Amino acid sequence: MILLTLPPFLKIFRNLTALFFFFLFLSSCSEDSEVPEDPIELPPVIEKEEISSKKSFAKPEFPVVYIEELDQFQEYFKEQHETSFSHVPNKNWMSFTAGKDGVLTKILLFGKANYQVSEHYGSGMRGFVRESNPQKGPRLGEWELTRDEIVNQLAAQGLNETQAGWITIRMRGNIPQELGKTYFLICKEIDDGKPWFGAFSFSEGNSYLPGRHWLHPDHDLVFRTYVGKTSEQIAKEQKSAANFQPAQPNTIENISTSPVLQPPPPKPMIDKNPSVGLPVEYKPAVEVDPNRITPPVSPPAKSSNVPENDREELDNKSLFDRLFKKSSTKEN
Questions:
Q1: What whole-number distance in Å separates Cα of residue 200 and Cα of residue 222?
Q2: pTM for this predicted structure
Q3: Do 125 and 189 contact (CB within 8 A), yes or no?
Q4: Contact 94, 185 (CB under 8 A)
Q5: How far, in Å, CA of 131 to CA of 177, rounded?
Q6: Contact of 190 with 144, CB cutoff 8 Å
Q7: 229-256 per-position pLDDT tens digit
Q8: 67-232 is classed in which CATH architecture?
């Protein structure tokens, strides 16, 4: 049996021929898979709307009350002394003790707008109310106050932003007030990343015993709290009345746009440490019985016809005579 072997150059030629036909096959396949010149238009792809992970929470409504009454107040202030709120714990609160049951509707502070352009003061602050403890007490409702609101409120009182006046902070949500319980107005946040907000007046000497300001145990802001009552609370209080008909509630518009029937301005503290409290009835140090007072004895009239030297001689002689006669009378 004879085996025929191909020369080396024929083997190379055979391999090249195989590669040529292989690439020719691939090119024909690619031409068949090309997209036609006039492709069919497909409908646009509708992309799903991205859902934000952050939930938008609606602000609580202002409480609707049938009666609104003044509760707590402190209306003395130290002249040319102002303080602010911070968002830092232990520097962000004031306290008061409720004197009535109901719902907290608003708190009035006495002060003015802080500087608009400053590295220390923000353009607004917001917070809530806590019961019994400024850090751990139950959190109630919420509130906010901006510098623009302060300027507008002062303008409604005929004041500019550098003058002090009453500033109203309206409460949102249900903030119950119970007689005898202490509540804290808490600032949780200040806008623009700044540490302070507001320029509020305060007093010294612990003029409001049932509360204080964070700055010092004896300091108290100039403030007023207002408590309202809902129809349920009124019905509960007056359920014994047979013909009780609830009145129409004060609407939000009436509360917010009611002018500035502002209370009278607070009173400046004249003394350094005045004793603030009930008026004191002052009495003289020594009590005098008016029945025991005797009228003073008038001196003898001087005659204008007697010369001055003779008048002095007569006065001395009369004095001598009176003394002499008195002593002689006693001897007799």
A1: 8
A2: 0.60
A3: yes
A4: yes
A5: 9
A6: no
A7: 988 888 888 875 655 565 565 544 433 3
A8: Sandwich (2.60)
